Amino acid sequence: MEQQLETNNDPKNNKVFKGILIGGVVGGALVMMNRSARKKVKSKAVSLKDSSTRLVTEVKNHPGEVKDQLINQFKSASDTLKDAILDAQKLYQRVNEDISSQFVAMKDASSQAVSSVKNAKGDITKISSKVKDAQSELTENPIEHNPSSTKDQDKLEYYGTDAGTAYPRKEPEPVTSTTTPHK
């Protein structure tokens, strides 16, 4: 398959090209109205003319040397570019390894943290059970559930006997007043 370039015979393409050309000329003319812009354009044009004249003269006088010099410049630029690519690859590998190792370390640390939380949960459950036991011990009636209360009964003083029966000594009951004091 052969591709052929179309010529600019299309009237639309010609109009676009003419518009670009006219716009460039008008823009260039407006820039030339500024004195500093004219000086810059003039100095750049002279510099370009001088360097191109030197290049043409050098190519005419020493074509082989210019060719060799250009080849060496391209080889040098190519080698520099290859070094930059290798350095970029090494950097990518180093960063990738660093990130991977840090990810593994974070994963291990998170696993250890989860394990610690699970162990703490078991310990907290044990502590909670002990606290509940202590609470129930504090809320129990000491007389009804105290195993030493029977021993205390043995320590009660007895007095009097009626036909061989002893009665425990009663503590006097506190006196409570139902009347309110006068002011």
Automatic annotation (TrEMBL):
Region of interest (Disordered), residue spans: 125-183
Transmembrane segments: 16-34
Protein name according to UniProt: Gas vesicle protein
Comp. bias intervals (Basic and acidic residues): 125-135
Alphabetical keyword list: Membrane, Transmembrane, Transmembrane helix
Highest taxon above the source species: Bacteria
